[in-house]
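Entry for the shared binder. Reason: the reviewer on the internal report wants the predicted structure included alongside the sequence.
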Amino acid sequence: MSYKDKIWTKSWDSHVKDLDPKEFEMTYPQAIRRTMEEFPDKMAFDYLGVTFTYKDLDEASNQFAN
């Protein structure tokens, strides 16, 4: 069965474009690092009224690790 035959692709609206799986051939840490570098000022998450940008998250995780 090819990727295009997967059940979830059959429910997509006609205007939805398929993704190139090769674009996502990276590890989870690589994906997070890329996101932090490309979108440092975007909100990473908001929890109980505290908002962290990707830059905040990067700095906090580095402080925790070191």
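Summary line for the report: The chain has three helices and two strands.
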